Amino acid sequence: MKNIIRSVLFAAMAIFLAASFSGVIGAQTVQSPKASPPILVTSCGQSEGPSSLNTILKRVGVAYDVVPLATVNDLKVKGYKTLIVTMGASLKGMGAAGISIDDELKRTAELIDAARKAKITVIGAHIEGMKRRAQGAEAGDTTDEQSIDTVAPKSDILFVKKEGNSDNRFTIISQAKKIPMVEFEKNMDMVAALEKMFK
Which of 33, 108, 172, 194 is most buried when burial is the number of CB atoms within 10 A of its CB? Predict the structure, then answer.
C-alpha cells in the first residue's frame, strides 16, 4: 500500500514539475518575440497611437515611417519587414480625416491581409491604455473594440499597455490565437521593450 501511495505521489510531482517547466518556457517565448525594421506604422481608428510611437521609435533608433492612413500600396514602397497597427478609435480623429469606422476597418483589414501574404510581421499595438477603450463619445460607442477585433486576432505579435489589459481582453485573444504578447507598464518602458524586439 505504501509503495502504491509513493508511486502516486512521485507521478503527481513529475506532472507538476513538467507543467511548471512548460509554463516557464512558454512565458519566455511569449516575452521575447522578434521583428525587423524597416517598419510601417499606421492606425486603425485614427487615435494618437502613431504619434506616440513616432517619439518612441526615434529613441529606439530603427528605420520606420508613420502613415496614419496607409494603404496596400504604401506597404510596397520601401520593403517594409514589419507593420505596426495601433488599435484605438478616435471619433475626432476619424472626423478630421473625413472617414468612418467602417472605412477604417476595411482599410486596415486589407492592409493586414496584404502584409501577411507578403510575410511582413504584423504587430497589433494598443498603447493608450484603458482611457482609450473607455473614451466613447456616447453610450454604446464600440468603435475602439471594433478596432481591436479587426487587428488583434490577425497580428503576429501583440504589444499592449498592461493597464489597458486589466480585463484580460488581449490575454484572451493571445491565448486563443497563440499570439505572443508583450505587455509594458509605463510609456517609458516602451523603448526598452521595442529595443529588445527589434535589436
Answer: 194
Q: Which residues pair with 96 in a beta bridge?
A: none
Backbone φ and ψ of 184, nearest 5° = -130, 150
Task: List pLDDT tens digits, range 30-80.
Answer: 457 999 999 999 999 998 899 999 999 999 999 999 999 999 999 988 899
Please answer whether residues 151 and 182 qualify as being in contact, where contact means their C-beta atoms are separated by less than 8 angstroms.
no
Of the chain, the end-to-end C-alpha distance in Å amounts to 58
pLDDT tens for 130-154 read: 777 765 445 567 888 999 999 999 9
Instruction: Say which residue the cell 507543467 belongs to.
Output: 19
> Long-range pairs for 137-141 at CB < 8 Å and ≥24 separation?
137/91, 141/91
DSSP structure class, residue 86: E
Q: Which cell numbers hold the place of 59?
A: 529613441
SS3 breakdown of the chain: % helix, strand, coil, rounded to 5? 55, 15, 30
Predicted model pTM: 0.82
Residue 149 is predicted with a pLDDT of: 95
Q: How far is residue 94's CA from residue 119's CA, in Å, rounded to a whole number?
A: 29
Q: How many angstroms separate the CA atoms of 122 and 172, rounded? A: 18
